[in-house]
């Protein structure tokens, strides 16, 4: 990783917060294109149904879908796990279900980041019961050091160190999601 990272501050809305770029937008776009082609190669002539986990996966899913040749449909599900804090409560709750059935479909669950694995473990259990033809997981980021479940992703964009990241859909207190790059968030000492 580049030694001299670009620093971003969000001004008065976010006092004491700094973000240093970890993965620039160009690398993200290049990698998503590779992932889309890889998934398509694995399921050659099949319609692929992407299931995005709101809200973090919205940008990843939209770029992945647009880079994927062939028939692609998508749907969204929403769960709540993180609050305003940078640490998960470990509790996962469904807040919005899918619009349509996934029975018999080739389903790729699209998630922004695989951290403890609690969210995906919960979702995969639900989805498996709904009898998809195939069930795979694509994550933009993987933070393996934090894992407390046996969940693994079939497609991983970037494996990252155990740092709190924001941007490209990932938030801190609902902010930074619209940053086109992924960066590491640092809070000034004393701020939680
Ligand atoms: P898990 O259930 O611990 O694997 O966490 C998954 C969810 O936690 C992700 O979908 C994110 O919403 C959130 N999350 C985990 N790590 C980070 C991070 O570094 N930055 C922002 N959100 C994160
Ligand atoms: Mg999320």
Task: Give an overview in words.
The strands form two sheets. Strands 5-4-3-6-7-8 form a six-stranded mixed β-sheet, sandwiched between helices. A four-stranded antiparallel β-sheet has the order 1-2-10-9. The two termini are 27 Å apart. Helix 3 (118-129) links the parallel strand 6 and strand 7 (134-142). The chain is an alpha/beta fold. It is built from three helices and ten strands; from the N terminus they run ββαβαβββαββββ. It has helices at 25-42, 58-67, 118-129, and strands spanning 7-8, 17-23, 48-54, 72-80, 93-96, 106-114, 134-142, 155-159, 165-166, 182-187.
Which features does this protein show?
about 30% strand; about 190 residues; binds magnesium ion; four-stranded antiparallel sheet; six-stranded mixed sheet; alpha/beta; globular; binds inosinic acid
Query: Could you describe the largest sheet, including whether it forms a barrel?
Result: 6 strands, mixed
The radius of gyration computed from the alpha-carbon positions, rounded to a whole number of angstroms, is: 17 Å
**Distinct helical segment count:** 3
Helicity level: 10-25%
Which H/E pattern describes the elements? EEHEHEEEHEEEE
- Strands of the widest sheet, in order across it, are 5-4-3-6-7-8
**Bound ligands, named by name, code or SMILES:** inosinic acid, magnesium ion
The span between the termini is: 27 Å
Brief digest:
The chain contains three helices and ten strands; from the N terminus they run E-E-H-E-H-E-E-E-H-E-E-E-E. With 192 residues, the protein is of the alpha/beta class. It has a six-stranded mixed beta sheet with strand order 5-4-3-6-7-8, sandwiched between helices. The chain has a four-stranded antiparallel beta sheet with strand order 1-2-10-9.
């Amino acid at each position: 990783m580049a030694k001299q990272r670009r620093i971003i501050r969000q001004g008065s809305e976010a006092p004491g917060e700094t973000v240093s770029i970890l993965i620039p937008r160009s690398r993200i776009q290049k990698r998503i294109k590779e992932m889309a082609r890889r998934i398509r190669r694995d399921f050659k002539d099949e319609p692929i149904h992407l299931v995005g986990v709101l809200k973090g996966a919205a940008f990843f899913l939209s770029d992945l879908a647009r880079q994927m040749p062939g028939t692609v449909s998508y749907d969204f599900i929403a769960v709540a796990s993180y609050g305003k804090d940078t640490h998960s409560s470990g509790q996962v709750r469904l807040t919005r279900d899918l619009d349509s059935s996934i029975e018999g479909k080739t389903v790729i669950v699209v998630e922004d980041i695989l951290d403890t694995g609690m969210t995906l473990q919960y979702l995969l259990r639900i989805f498996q019961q709904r009898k998809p033809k195939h069930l795979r997981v694509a994550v933009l980021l993987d933070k393996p050091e934090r894992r407390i479940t046996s969940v693994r992703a079939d497609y991983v964009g970037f494996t990252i160190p155990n740092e709190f990241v924001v941007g490209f859909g990932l938030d801190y207190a609902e902010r930074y999601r619209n940053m086109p790059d992924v960066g590491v968030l640092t809070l000034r000492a004393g701020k939680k």
